[in-house]
Amino acid sequence: MERTQKAKRKDPFKPAKKKAAGKRTKKLGKTPANKVAKSAKKGAAKRTPMPRAAKGKRPQYFEDPAVDKLHLMVMALIEELSVTRDRLDTVERLIERHGLFQVEEIEDYFPDLKADGERSGRRIAYIRRVMKGITDELENLHGQEPAMEFDEVVDVISR
Amino acid sequence: MDTQTRHPMLVRGKHDELSRQQFVHNLRLCLAADVMPGNRTVYEQRVKPAFRKKNKRDPKNRHEVRREMSKDPYYRIFSASQRASQEMMWDSVADSVERELPELKKRARGNPHKTKGTLRIPKNFKVPSYHTAADIHLQPGGYHATPDGGDSIAAGALYDRSVYLYAIGGMGNMNDDLGKTMIGFYQERFPGEQPKRILDMGCSVGHSTLAWAQAYPDAEVHGLDCGEGMVRYAHARARNLGINAHFSQQNAEKTDFPDNHFDVVVSHIMLHETSSTAINNIIRECHRILRPGRVMMHLDLMRDQGMKPFDSFMMDWEAYNNNETFLVRLRDMDWKKIAVDAGFKPNKCKIDGSMMNISKEMIKAGQEPHYTASFPILVGRK
Prior knowledge:
The complex is a heterodimer of chains A (159) and B (382). Chain A is an all-alpha fold. Chain A contains seven helices and no strands. Chain A is flat, with a radius of gyration of 25 Å. Chain B contains 15 helices and eight strands. In chain B, helix 4 packs across helix 6. Classes of the chains: A mainly alpha (159), B alpha/beta (382). Chains A and B meet through helix 4 of A and helix 1 and helix 4 of B.
């Protein structure tokens, strides 16, 4: 039932009017705003890149070097989540500073049925994306034929 | 909390850059406060008993402890995370430096306080191999990187902000606590001296050098370093802070200063970034440029001698994981012998030590210091 409701609702990520959006993109080519964007791009290209990797052999901390890489990825994710939370905090503080509403209202906010449904849908899509790696193999198990090994596929395409 | 003094030359971070830097700052704090102490527990409860069972004795030195600890999953994830925090630190600051470099260079050219500090960069300087073999502290490109060409200050800009994060603010808001520590030590041990010329070897961005210049405003204070971007930045930093100091790109092994020139020659955690040959050359050079009766002082990390194997093993962490490689050798060396070989009389040199100034100040104020360990200082009077 939720699905039918969802299908009827407008996608919030789609532009309101396709035509208007297309026009705007075309027009942009001649506006001075685009010129600024171009020159900014030029400036960015001129930027001197700092060296990013330190010379010297990196120790291997785990039995499998892939775990070292995975650990670095996890660390980067922890960092970026922290950055996102900080950014949100900044938004909240600026909202309060400009008197749009009191941040306490966030703590006491309860989504109405509509908002709750939208959040739920977004959350489920997000979790599915994260869990995709785990559930992918089920697709093959449910399929009519068992998945072929790589070499078998090579045989097929070599025929 | 990140309370580093935002002086005009300090790189300014945009929102997310700053957030990443502060994340690294907090991450290192958590690693130091929560995770690192667990290594001792793991060693005492798990690693040492297993070793004892197998060998019928305790590990006898730091190297044996390291071999055993390196197999332990707790120590591994600690080390991997500590290493990652160091890499993330440089990367988070490099983003800001890369973006702000043209602006920083503009500021570097100014002399708002009309200071008299000079800068000397030789034409064909050769960066010593102990700097080029591996990037010390994992600073990408090393102290000597000049990614932005002939007037580069990039390495210094990167270092000034990063070293604050590295020390989790433990060197003070101007990163000058090691300088203050040495000044306090000097005034305690050699009361009443009024040095006219002071040299800070391996000064990097001059964060300790300026502490000396502020303590002795009438003295001629010099800082030298192998990194061109370091001394260029040090010069700009001093000028923008309105402090008189002279900087030059030089190798401490062989400087261009005349004989019998300085009243004080110091270095603040520089020795462990040199080599077995270089350290002998450096101490010999100190003897040459010091005026008779005047002193050299080199502060560095704890030697192996007199330390328990586990504590000594932990002191080696930066050597094996943070490209401070010479530290391993230096900690076994007889520093006094090096000084004697360089010309200092045996009764005129010794390994002394001092607690950090910040810790001393906290004790004075009746607070619990974060860190009470003493730094050894090689002292020699010519």
